[in-house]
Write a structure and sequence with these properties.
By secondary structure, the chain is α/β, with parallel strands linked by helices. The protein is built from 13 helices and 15 strands. Bound molecules: adenosine-5'-triphosphate. Adenosine-5'-triphosphate (ATP) binds next to helix 1.
Length: 380
């Protein structure tokens, strides 16, 4: 079973939220969030994502309708206890500035009466889990970078090992490089922990990357479509969703398929310490120069080389080898950037397996689209 296909851990049933000033933030929301999956809520500013999230742990209560977590109506549970049993991560990490990082992470276990020693031991273990050193536990939040503070926020939310994690734009305030690292880290953690995660973001790329299911909202708190990323990208329910996904939604779809099943062919290669062939040798124009461990070092253009010297000493053009876990989108990008139009496919150790042609990548890209565009359940 894929993550996100399990039974519903959180259910919204005809939920409305109207604020006293008359604003309807959430309008007739019925939605299931599967156990052990990541449900991402996306949509433009003010469409009710945060309000939806905050009703799950009773930071806000619905005006009408029912929300259940683990089968239990949240309104029948004590709000403070419910909040402690659900992890919550927000954009500006929300750490207590006058407490050390370790004490910040230990907050909920202490509230739950674990005792100082046990709570701190757990906090220290969690800092390591989210990629921080034990030493950083002694610092205060302002002594950490924005990205590190977000990691502490995630560690704090995980401290009491809650089954549900609510994340409200947790990576919204960090630069794109750190953001990608934090996303990678979250995916790694999730593959071990299998939490039920509800994740709010503005960023559709982040949603496609992290979500098992994506729920798209529009202004007025209306859910327009909730689907797996592939289905959403291939079959947006209406023009609003298509617009929201953007002009590159076809390319985004390719980011969901990997090179695992794409066929490769034998590559024309030359070893680094062999003599560099020239155009007069009559072989193929482009050769991949390999290290002794068969790692691709670069492309040799025999049309531009007069012969003489070793292949390693010849002017080489850069190669960016791809693995089976890399996406079809990366392959398409590399096939455009590669001087030979070929993509070098390597194994997990980085050794060359073969090359994939631009045509093969295009064929797979087309097939991915055709398959995704087919309504689910229809015959292949
Ligand atoms: N306490 C409140 N009182 C009145 N209106 C509110 C309150 N909180 C939110 N709203 C309004 O409810 C609507 C939904 O807000 P919400 O914060 O849930 O949207 P959002 O999709 O999370 O937006 P953003 O992406 O900008 O964070 C907005 O129109 C907002 O102005």
């Amino acid at each position: 079973m894929q993550p996100g296909e399990g039974r519903a851990m959180i259910t919204f049933d005809a939920v409305h939220k109207r604020f006293p000033n008359g604003t309807t933030a959430v309008d007739d929301l019925s939605l299931d969030m599967p156990e052990g999956g990541v449900t991402v809520l996306v949509g433009s500013s003010g469409c009710g994502k945060t309000t939806t999230l905050r009703m799950i742990n009773r930071m806000l209560d619905p005006t009408s309708g029912t929300i259940r977590v683990g089968g239990k109506d949240v309104l029948e549970q004590d709000a403070a206890l419910l909040r402690r049993s659900i992890g919550y991560v927000i954009q500006q990490s929300g750490l207590f500035p006058h407490r050390t990082v370790l004490d910040n992470v230990a907050t909920v276990p202490l509230l739950l009466g674990w005792g100082r020693r046990k709570a701190r031991a757990r906090a220290s273990e969690l800092l390591e889990t989210v990629g921080l050193t034990a030493e950083s536990g002694k610092r205060y939040p302002h002594q950490l970078s924005g990205g590190q503070q977000q990691r502490v926020g995630v560690a704090r939310a995980l401290a009491a090992d809650p089954p549900v994690l609510l994340m409200d734009e947790p990576f919204g305030a960090v630069d794109p490089v750190v953001r990608t690292q934090l996303q990678d880290e979250l995916m790694r953690l999730q593959s071990e922990l299998n939490k039920t995660i509800v994740f709010v973001t503005h960023d559709i790329d982040e949603a496609v990357r992290l979500g098992d299911r994506i729920a798209v909202f529009r202004t007025g708190g209306r859910l327009v479509q909730c689907a797996e990323p592939g289905e959403l990208l291939a079959r947006p329910a209406d023009a609003f969703v298509a617009d929201f996904l953007g002009a590159e939604r076809g390319l985004k779809l390719l980011s969901l398929s990997t090179l695992k099943d794409v066929e490769y062919e034998e590559a024309a290669t030359v070893h680094a310490d062999e003599p560099a062939p020239s155009r007069t040798s009559g072989g193929p124009r482009w050769l991949l120069v390999l290290s002794p461990a068969r790692t691709p070092l670069g492309w040799l253009d025999t049309d531009e080389h007069d012969g003489g010297g070793t292949a390693a000493a010849a002017p080489l053009l850069p190669v960016r080898p791809l693995r089976g876990t890399d996406s079809l989108l990366s392959a398409l990008n590399e096939s455009v950037a590669s001087p030979s139009g070929l993509v070098a496919r390597v194994d997990d150790s980085g050794a060359l397996m073969g090359v994939i042609s631009r045509e093969e990548i295009h064929t797979h890209a087309g097939r991915t689209h055709t398959a995704a565009a087919r309504p689910s359940g229809s015959a292949v």
